[in-house]
Structures are given as structure tokens and as C-alpha cells.
Amino acid sequence: MNERRIEIESNLLDVENRIKSAAESAGRNRDEITLVAVTKYFPVSDALILYENGVRNFGENRDDEGSQKSNQLRADAIWHFQGQIQGRKIPSIISWADQIHSLDSLDHALKFNRILQAAGESRRFMIQLSLEPSREDRGGIALHDLPKFLDSLLPLTQLEIRGVMAVLPIEIEPSAGFAEIVSYVKSLSHPHLQEYSLGMSNDFEDAICAGATHIRVGSSILGSRPALA
Questions:
Q1: What is the rounded average pLDDT of the residues 196-225?
Q2: Is the Cβ–Cβ distance between 178 and 164 less than 8 Å?
Q3: How many CB atoms lie within 10 A of CB 1?
Q4: Which tens digit of pLDDT belongs to each residue from 19-74?
Q5: What is the three-class DSSP state of 51?
Q6: CATH number of the domain that residue 78 is part of
């Protein structure tokens, strides 16, 4: 067994134990939480090690990486696109991603729907939220704009809206920020908003306590990301 496999398997076990502990503290079942292993910038060999250790959900922020890696794992692997969407990349994203976490534009939603409708397919989506609406470069729908955005998506029948995703600004305390998101979304009583993609390596325990159904964990499993070429 090589050193990289040992490292990944040890880290994965540690993350699993942390998930179980956080779930237990919150009075939740481990099965309620989907671990999305974020493999961006890492080689497909790392994803294969994770797959061999039971991981089935993988997250990518870049279309080119997701497209390449998804072809090298078995068909039961589930691929999550969680990066900023570029309109010209939408056809490619559809070709490999099972769920898109970062929908925050009606123009993009219309394009996704049009392409999916032509193919007779659908995809699962989460709406990306932002707690800092002044930072438009980071993307995301402000909480108070969520109901209006949801209404605009109603005619788009190929989009299966499942829930919301958020990345907290560093200045917001995680437990308070996640709790605010979950509380507000639940107050809408919207039947399609049942999933919460919240929390990454540094704050996923707080996210679980707040009600996250999906956590996106990269560095705690795979280590520091390699420098881009």
C-alpha cells in the first residue's frame, strides 16, 4: 500500500468520525448527511482511492476537470458541479454533472432548461445563496431575493430544484451564518427546498449542527491543494 493511499484513507476515516460525532451532537443520523469529496486540482488517482473506500459523491469546481475525471470512475459515482457557472460551459456541465450546486442566474437557468428539454433529460440543482450581496463577483442570490428567484424558475420543468448552497464569508461566524440560512429557507415552507449544501473542511461540523444535508470536504481528506500548472 503506497503512502498516498494510506494518507487518504487515514484522513477519510478521521472526517467520517467527525461527521458521526457532529451528527450525534445534533441529534441526527449519519445517513442524513452526504459527504461530497472535493477533488478539484487533485489527480483522478486520488478520486479512485476514495471510490475504492466507499465514497460515491465527488465535487468539482471546474468543468474541464469534472468532465475528464467523471469518465474514469464507474457509472455509480455521483458528480456535483459547485463552481461558478459560465454560460458557454453549460452544455459540457450537463454532460457529466448529476447535480449543480451553484445556480444563481435566470439566464443560466433558461439555458440549462432549453438544452435539457431538447435532450429529454433533467438535472438536480441547488440555488447558490450569498450573505454578502455587495460582492457580486462571488455570485449567489441574496436571502431576501430567494422567493422571487424561485418564482422565476417555476416554468423551467427540466430543473429539479432541491435546495440551497452557500459559502460563508470569512467574517461571518459559521454556526450563526448556517443557522440563519437554514432558518430562513425553512420559513419559506417551499416543498422543493429540502437540501442544504453547507460547510467545507474548516466548518462542516457547524454546518451539520445547523442542518446541512451535504458537506463539501476537500483539504481535510486530500490535503493542501497542489499549485496550478
A1: 96
A2: no
A3: 6
A4: 999 999 999 999 999 999 999 999 999 999 999 999 999 999 999 999 999 999 99
A5: helix
A6: 3.20.20.10
